[in-house]
Amino acid sequence: MTAPITICIVGLGLMGGSLALALRQASVTTAQQDAARITLHASRITGVSRRAETLAAALASGAVDAVTSDLAAGVADADVVVLATPGRTILRQLPQVGRHAKTGALILDLGSTKAEICAAMADLPAGLQPVGGHPMCGKEIAGFAAAEAGLFRDRPFVLCPLPRTAAAALEQARLLACAVGARPIVLDPATHDRAAAAISHLPYAVSVALVNAVAAADDPLAWSLAASGFRDTSRLAASDVEMMLDILLTNREAVLDWLDAFAGQLAALRAALSAHDEDALRSQLTAAQARRTGMKF
Amino acid sequence: MTAPITICIVGLGLMGGSLALALRQASVTTAQQDAARITLHASRITGVSRRAETLAAALASGAVDAVTSDLAAGVADADVVVLATPGRTILRQLPQVGRHAKTGALILDLGSTKAEICAAMADLPAGLQPVGGHPMCGKEIAGFAAAEAGLFRDRPFVLCPLPRTAAAALEQARLLACAVGARPIVLDPATHDRAAAAISHLPYAVSVALVNAVAAADDPLAWSLAASGFRDTSRLAASDVEMMLDILLTNREAVLDWLDAFAGQLAALRAALSAHDEDALRSQLTAAQARRTGMKF
Questions:
Q1: Looking at residue B269, what is its pLDDT?
Q2: By the number of CB atoms within 10 A of the CB, which of A6, A31, A142, A229 ranks highest?
Q3: H or E segment and range at residue A186
Q4: Which stretches of chain A score pLDDT less than 50?
């Protein structure tokens, strides 16, 4: 990554758009990050999207140097291909990327689950360098209009190299993560997926069930009284449905396991309340309070 | 409420402290609210707390004119007594307030559940004017240090008059709510408790179970990856435990009902995911997204 490179970002929604903006505006502090910034500032960025208005907006914002709706053309001359589409779209696009990407290119994705994507990456031609990626950040609003350069700042950026991935390719992915202000963390796909299910996919499912439970009662009064507590606990339910479907369906086993663990905790709380067992209830509430109060975000 | 009055606030934590500060700093826009402001600005406010440091802090801040740790002495000359202690403390304090409050005084509480408190208020001496109250606002931080004058601004302030309550007393409570910037809403206690269980107590229970489920796995990696989604969904778990115990135990039936409704929604989501039933899953996620996106806070 010492010479100027060409980066192709496929998908210019919240994640892809933010990555392009961040690469343009990267401001960094460490020596490693400075090296990344210098190189990446000299880079050419191509944006790929199916939607003409997204391409126009990305070009107008200066986030990308060139745009195309043709995946094959976009990836053809790229040193780095970043797949920033939803999880199952990435799975569909990988074979085409494999046919058209140039030998030696780093193939990085930003999908929210890693096991299925990394397994599919194993089928890429031997000359390509695949690394699964997942920046641990997001918003419940989707699309390029929601993109912002600061999205990755100080957030973990998980990287999952394959057994075949060259060290230099992983290093290139690490520099890219640093360049956008994130903290790269190398994990194996299964470990990532289990942790992401706990702290991201389970909260989403819980938030959906909460909204649907209150909605089922169809009580306008309850909605009118909702305050910051309901607002925050239910925020994730507003997330993009197709993206979340991809996440849940490509991380099904881990999500099911965490749903069961959660249901067990909720049943324990219900049992203590139902039995008027104040000590058991206090012990559960106190444990949660101590853990949550100790968390830093 | 046309002449200057004396208000005694019992409990100077987040709610009581904020009420005192708000009464001091009330800025209002409607004619009704102006009338309330003029009267209440001329009021004398007495603060009651068991803790000397809380009394000193409240006095130093200018939120109250006088302080005492003696409930009987504090309420003796008050035209309005506001009980801003946790729910079960209110239940314990009501008989003593009944013995010492002066005839004609408005007895208003700020407890988060209303059925048990309003039932206990029915036992107050006939000369007193009880109104159950619940400002729908809060923070997960407790204590006078967390108090702020703007806490009630534009928030619903539920008022539950008893059958015996004089119209003038309810009007006085309504003016007080307006004076601190809140929107008074008159409800019967059971209706309030059921709605509050849905939009406040259920989200708290869900948040506790979420934190305890992830904590049970004892995985430092998961915690280190937690981002804004987990932060918001779990925020309520940091709430004051004794306050929340009082709320859950004094609103037990309604909370249990909502826990069951929630568990039903979660089981439906789990079943769709387990069966790989994409259409059913999409329909649940879409319903929640539409509802949540339409909410205004």
A1: 98
A2: A229
A3: strand A183-186
A4: 1, 27-31
> Which of the residues B265, B274, B277, B282 would you substitute to probe the A interface, choosing the one with the greatest number of A C-beta atoms within 10 Å?
B265
What is the topology classification, in CATH, of domain B6-187?
Answer: Rossmann fold (3.40.50)
Select the residue of A138, A191, A202 nearest B221 (Cβ to Cβ).
A191
Asked whether the beta carbons of residue B292 and residue A237 sit closer than 8 angstroms, the reply is yes
Helix and strand numbers (H, E) in chain A are 14, 8
- Using CB atoms, which residue from B224, B227, B235 is nearest to A200? B227
Q: For an interface test with B, which of A199, A257, A276 has the most B Cβ atoms less than 10 Å from its Cβ?
A: A199
Tell me the C-alpha distance between B165 and A293, whole Å. 42
Instruction: Give dist(CA A24, CA A21) in Å, integer.
Output: 5
Q: Residue B116: helix, strand or coil by DSSP?
A: helix
**Could you tell me which residues are beta bridge partners of residue B68?**
B48
For β-strands A156-161 and A129-135, DSSP reports them as: antiparallel
pLDDT at A131: 98
Take residue B264 and report the two structure tokens written for it.
């039903």
Predicted model pTM: 0.85
Please state, in angstroms and rounded to a whole number, the distance separating the CA atoms of residues A31 and B28: 54
Judged by CB atoms closer than 8 Å, whether chains meet at A237 and B289 is answered as yes
Please state which CATH class domain A192-293 belongs to: mainly alpha
Three-class SS of residue A174?
A: helix
Question: What is the residue type of A39?
Answer: T
Predicted local distance difference test score (pLDDT) of residue B36? 59
- Render pLDDT for B125-169 as a digit per residue (tens, 0 to 9): 999 999 999 999 887 788 999 999 999 999 999 999 999 999 999
The interface predicted TM-score (ipTM) is 0.85
**HEC-encoded secondary structure of B217-267:** CCCHHHHHHCCHHHHHHHHHHHCCHHHHHHHHHHCHHHHHHHHHHHHHHHH
Please name the amino acid found at residue B28: V
Domain positions in chain B are 6-187, 192-293
Q: Residue B25's pLDDT is what?
A: 79
Residues in CB range of A250: below 8 A, 6 or more apart: A87, A88, A91, A111, A113, A115, A116, A117
pLDDT tens digit sequence for A253-288: 999 999 999 999 999 999 999 999 999 999 999 999
Chain A to chain B Cβ contacts (< 8 Å): 301
Handedness of CA A22, A27, A30, A33 (dihedral sign): positive
The predicted pLDDT at position A107 comes to: 98
